[in-house]
Amino acid sequence: MEMTGGTDEQICAEALAAFGLSAPAAVRPIPEGLMNRNWDITTADGTRYALKEVLDVGPDTARRQHAATRALAAAGLPVPAPQATPEGDTLATVGGRSYALTPWAAGEMLPARSWSREQAAAVGVLLAELHTELADAMPAAPREVPVSVTSAAKATARFADFRRQAAAGHAGFDADVERALTEREELLDRWAGRLPQDGERGPAGWCHGDFHDLNLLWETGSVSAVLDWDRLGVRPYADEVVRTATLPVMFGAGEGPLDLELVAAFVGGYRKASGLPAEALAEAAERQRWERLCDVWQLKVHYGKGDESCDHLFRAASALVGWWARHHRQVRDALTPG
Questions:
Q1: Distance (Å, rounded) from C-alpha 332 to C-alpha 141?
Q2: pLDDT at position 109 over 80
Q3: Closest to 334 in 3D by CA, of 295, 293, 281, 289
Q4: Partner of 284 for a Cys bridge, out of 62, 157, 219, 242, CB 3.0 to 4.6 A?
């Protein structure tokens, strides 16, 4: 079936036909998608679907994600299961473009900073359950996987390059960049003697890859859907737990400090359900702290692409790096609750 760009209604009608469904009665583009195009579709019988044009991963990767989410849904976990075409494929190719279709996930996003400690702990338990079910559903993963650590020399070169670009600018953001990179260079010197090491780390297994509150929907006080499985992959479990717990958009509320009570509740829930050793979390926390210091991907977007959409994320990340440095022991304790 040939399909060019077309209107939203045409695109959705032809994609639904590939899944063996009738034309939609209502179509609404979903503006939140960054990498993929998405639509909210209602069919004539009132059934609601989410249609996604898959752009950021290849067909084999998409089908692997679909196999995982279908298995999780079959296990009773709150994960939308992709529909299959009449031929049994979860990916429909129409006019050279790939589409995935899932039942519409009911619920609403709930900022992590508004969670109770009980809710934070329940989300930690849910993440552990997802890891456990993924281990059963997916191909066997190695017990340990290699991790790499950014060298101080590489980070120094990055900072110097962006400092030069910021110095040539005249906007308020350029001044923010210069101040933030000055602080990061000072921290780089201070932490250089405690550089985390490359090597094999575990326990490892299949992980969601981008688990945070913007990918969770809630209904009646509990999680009703876990969304966005595009980064599914094999990692140390502790890396996913620590990354989630310390994202500025999670328990950090933008540029604010982490809510360490919620961090401890979330990690404690995960540990209670999984038995993950505190030592693995402590090691992952040191690597995460170092990599957050070295990572300036938002500046690549700003200076490399002229795109200011991630400027606020750089400010939030820089604020967290400084705060984490000043509250290192408290953060470590929250990430390794008994």
A1: 28
A2: yes
A3: 281
A4: 242
State residue 194's pLDDT score. 86
pLDDT for 2 equals 40
DSSP per residue over 219-242, as a string?
ETTEEEEE---TT-EEEEHHHHHH
Q: Tell me: pLDDT of 5 over 90.
A: no
Rounded mean pLDDT of 87-99?
A: 92
Q: Answer for the pair 200, 144: CB distance below 8 angstroms, yes or no.
A: yes
28/111 Cα distance (integer angstroms): 24
CA–CA separation, 49 vs 101, rounded Å?
Answer: 7
Q: What is the pLDDT of residues 302-311, one digit of tens each?
A: 999 999 999 9
CA 165 to chain centre: 29
Query: Can you tell me the distance from the alpha carbon of 197 to that of 93, in angstroms, rounded to the nearest whole number?
Result: 44
| Amino acid letter, residue 238 | A
Are the beta carbons of 293 and 208 closer than 8 angstroms? no
pLDDT score, position 227? 93
Q: Which residue has the tokens 């010197």?
A: 189
Alpha helix stretches (DSSP H) within 275-305: 278-294, 297-299, 305
| The pLDDT of residue 8 is above 70 | yes
Q: For the whole model, what pTM was predicted?
A: 0.91
Interatomic CA distance for residues 306 and 50, integer angstroms: 32
Give 14-30 as a DSSP string: HHHHHTT-PPEEEEEEE
Q: Which residues have C-beta within 8 Å of that of residue 140, sequence separation ≥ 6?
A: none
